[in-house]
What we know:
By secondary structure, this protein is mostly helical. It has one domain. The chain is built from seven helices and no strands. Helix 5 (99-114) packs antiparallel against helix 7. The longest helix has 18 residues, at 2-19. The N and C termini lie far apart (69 Å).
Amino acid sequence: xxxxxxxxxxxxxxxxxxxxxxxxxxxxxxxxxxxxxxxxxxxxxxxxxxxxxxxxxxxxxxxxxxxxxxxxxxxxxxxxxxxxxxxxxxxxxxxxxxxxxxxxxxxxxxxxxxxxxxxxxxxxxxxxxxxxxxxxxxxxxxxxxxxxxxx
Length: 151
C-alpha cells in the first residue's frame, strides 16, 4: 500500500512540475486606447481609480496579475476568467460600441454593482481593496446613470 501511495505522489508531483512549463496568454497592454471607458467618458479621477481597482483586471485589456498567476493550474483558471469577463464587457474598447449598446452596458453595470454581483466575491476575497463601499456604489450609480442619460 505504501508503494502505491509513493508512486501516486511521485506521478502527481511530476505532472504538477510538468504543467508549470505550459505557457498562458497574458492580458497585458501598455497602450490605453482612445476607446477606453475612462478616457472616452472623462471619468472623474476618484471614479476612474474605483473602476480600475474593482473592474479593470477582468474587464479590460490590461490585467494586473497577482504573484500566484505563475502557478498552474491557477494561471489557466485566471486566464479563462479574464477572457469570460472581457467577452461580457471590455472597458478598453467601450467607446467603440454604438450609443445604444453603451447605454445597455451601462444599465447592466449599474445593476450588477447595485445588486452586489460585481465585483465578484471570489475576486474581492483576495483583492479587498476592490470592495465597493455603499457611498462608492452610490457615487458610481449617480455618475453612470448621468452618463447613460446623456449618451
